[in-house]
Each structure stands twice: as C-alpha cells, then as structure tokens.
Amino acid sequence: MTGDCQRCGACCVGLDVLLTDAEADRFEADPRLVALTTLHVRGGAPALRFMRRDPRTDRCVALEGPLGACRCGIYAERPALCRDFAAGSPDCLAARKRRGLPADDLTAPG
Questions:
Q1: CA distances from 85 to 2, 25, 46, 88, 95 (A)
Q2: What's the pTM?
Q3: Residue 8 — pLDDT band, cuts 50, 70, 90?
Q4: Residue 64 bridge partners (DSSP)
Q5: pLDDT classification of 2: cutoffs 50, 70, 90
Q6: Where do the structural domains in the chain lie, given as residue ranges?
Q7: Gap between the Cα atoms of 65 and 34, Å rounded
Q8: Which residue in 6, 30, 49, 95 has a CA-CA distance of 20 to 30 Å to 77?
Q9: Which residue(s) pair with 13 in the sheet?
C-alpha cells in the first residue's frame, strides 16, 4: 500500500525527528532550514539537532495546512527519517488511526 504523504501528515505529529550529522550540517548552512530545528545539548555529549514541533499542536513546524489536506514545506529537503517512513506501513496506519484519518484512502502501488 502507498499513500499520499504530501496530503496526510499523520506521521508529522508527535514524532521526534532526529537529523543525521550530515543533515544537521546541511540544515545549519541554510538559515531557512535551521530555523525549523532545535538543538538538544546533553551534558558532555555532542549536541543533537531535531526538527522543531509546534508546542500548541505537537506537529512538525514544516507541516502546512490541516491533516488530511496538508503538505510538507520542505518535502524535497526533508530528513531521512521522514523519507524512510513508509506510507501504508503498520507505523503509518497506526499514526493515521491516532489522528482519526481513514486508512481506506490508501491505494495499492500501480
């Protein structure tokens, strides 16, 4: 099964999206992208960069529009964790269920 990840957005709510070191470097080089992230500093360990979430909605700040009719504002530049999240996977279906989105609008690959 696949779905339209540019429309759904269920996986963009409540998920901590950690950027790889290479992604963090790429995002830090672009003021527009780095503004969408937050840095977590842990004691003596290296800092980790995550996508920011809106504290009111718990949604990724790159998500634009209402769930089910949204789009990722950085879809072409999104982190690997987002790229690897498979539409129609058990995790996808669970996220859709948590957000009240139906699974029946997912279509088989054609």
A1: 11, 22, 26, 9, 11
A2: 0.83
A3: confident
A4: 71
A5: very low
A6: 10-98
A7: 21
A8: 95
A9: 59
In the chain the first and final C-alpha atoms are separated, in Å, by 10
How many whole angstroms separate alpha carbon 41 and alpha carbon 86? 30
Residue from 88, 58, 64 nearest 78 by CA: 64
Q: What is the mean pLDDT of the chain?
A: 88
Strands 63-64 and 37-42: unpaired
Residue 99 makes CB contacts below 8 A (sequence gap 6+) with: 9, 10, 13, 67
> Which amino acid is it at 101?
L
Under a CB-based contact definition with an 8 Å cutoff, are residues 96 and 51 in contact?
no
Instruction: Look at the block and give the residue holding tokens 């995790």.
Output: 91
Name which of 60, 79, 80 is nearest 70 in CA terms: 60
Bridge partners of 42, per DSSP, are 45
Query: Of 7, 2, 29, 1, nearest to 101 (Cα)?
Result: 7
Nearest to 5 by CA among 68, 58, 60: 68
